[in-house]
Amino acid sequence: MSEKRIVSLSPHATEIVCALGQQHQLVGVSHDCDFPASVAHIPSCTEAKVTVEKLNASDTHFSDTLIRDSLSMYRVLPGQLDALEPDIVITQVPDEASTIPAEKLEAALQECCTSKPTLISLAPQRLSDVAEDFERIANLLNQTELAEEKLGRIRRRMGAIARDASAMVDKPTVACVEWLNPLMTASKWMPELITMAGGLNIFGEPGRHSAWMSWEDLINEDPDVIIVCPIGNDIDATRSEMEIQINQGDWRDLDAIKEKKTYIIDGKQFCHRPGPRLIESLEIFAEILQPETFYFGHQNRAWEIF
């Protein structure tokens, strides 16, 4: 099978391609593709309309943008795509701020790419979908045996955590917050990860899009644990936003705040990338929710106590 010129416009797709040992076939990526570090030299085919730094706790633009979900927060660079002459372009069906609308991308490809690439759109909603995307890309790259080996290893690691966590008697209630202003709860595969890690997820449904969460809901549930992992935010950025929230709202009345059971995860690297590193996201949740049972060394690197 001849090698292909691949452009990946989704960070998790880039991670899958690299995990399959095919980074050399990547000729273009998105500006958000930053793992593994070796992809840094690959040309970017997208740019941000709004930077994460501007989406602070007092900024209403993010809320407005989500409501007007036909507006992408990122744009494709057609000239760059054409110059790279891709055979395949991989993207993600949009429902997050960090994706490229498939219909807009397809139109751009038809207009600007003389190479007429094949468009592969991924749409993971649950952990099973993540595995299917892995296999789909592996089939595309003729790497099915390697994919089976890697997926088997990931499944075994996840299964071991889930088995140990299922035996836990004390399972804390968990609110996983995907955005702070407005409050948004994490859904899709995140409730599955929380359950597998020994927690009782109280907001968000597996396989569903992330949803708004009212302050009254959070107060009324008063969860044992609050996990904050905004999309695109590293730990420092989220900590800064949390400080603003603490000073402006009634967060201090929540037991999880008073008892130091509020945790910040690096949402730029973990949780929101449905690729090979979801095993690390599960390990992070396990360390947070069942610290007497699990330790993987992620604390103070991928997550911190707030």
Unreliable runs: 56-71
Q: How many structural units, i.e. domains?
A: 2
- What is the CATH architecture term of the largest domain? 3-Layer(aba) Sandwich
User: Please, what is the CATH homologous superfamily of the largest domain?
Assistant: Nitrogenase molybdenum iron protein domain
Number of beta-strand segments: 13
Strand content: 15-25%
Radius of gyration (CA) equals: 20 Å
Shape: globular
Number of helices: 11
How far is the first residue's CA from the last residue's CA? 51 Å
Main β-sheet description:
7 strands, mixed
Task: Write a structural description.
It is a single chain. With 306 residues, the protein is α/β, with parallel strands linked by helices. It has 2 domains: 6-123, 3-Layer(aba) Sandwich (Rossmann fold); 165-305, Rossmann fold, CATH 3.40.50.1980. The protein is built from 11 helices and 13 strands. The chain has helices at 11-19, 61-67, 78-84, 102-112, 127-140, 144-166, 190-196, 215-221, 235-248, 255-258, 278-289, and strands spanning 6-8, 26-29, 46-48, 74-76, 88-92, 118-122, 173-179, 184-185, 200-201, 211-212, 225-228, 262-265, 303-305. Strands 7, 8, 9, 10, 11, 12 and 13 form a 7-stranded mixed sheet that branches. Strands 2-1-5-6 form a 4-stranded parallel sheet, sandwiched between helices. α3 crosses α4 (102-112). The longest helix has 23 residues, at 144-166. The chain is globular.
